Amino acid sequence: QVQLVESGGGLVQPGGSLRLSCAASGFTFSAYAMSWYRQAPGKERELVAQIMSAGGSTKYVDSVKGRFTISRGNAKNTVYLQMNSLKPEDTAVYYCNAKVAISQYGVVREYDHWGQGTQVTVSS
Predict the structure, then answer these.
(1) Residue 101 half-sphere exposure toward CB, CA atoms < 13 A
(2) Staple partner for 9: which of 100, 102, 113, 118, CB 3.0–4.6 Å?
């Protein structure tokens, strides 16, 4: 059974910090790129941060660059998102995503797994 379980969300004041965690099970975690997405009411889901399977390469959406840090602990099958200097605009449901692309027999197959999300609210 594939599972991604997010935790660590909550209510925080502007300028505060939160650390999100995503615990994975049911698949070969170390082979997957891990990402955090978020979706605010009335807005489309956007990619916030991504870390490759080896952990040596990361990407961030411009709006969180310098404030958020994604990391992973493959031994614990967990990916983290450290969020500092939070702004009201960061308010959203944050989702954990695992993705891998496999090429075999001339066909590229992509596998995606999603968590249920955790609410982050930044408000005074």
Answers:
(1) 5
(2) 118
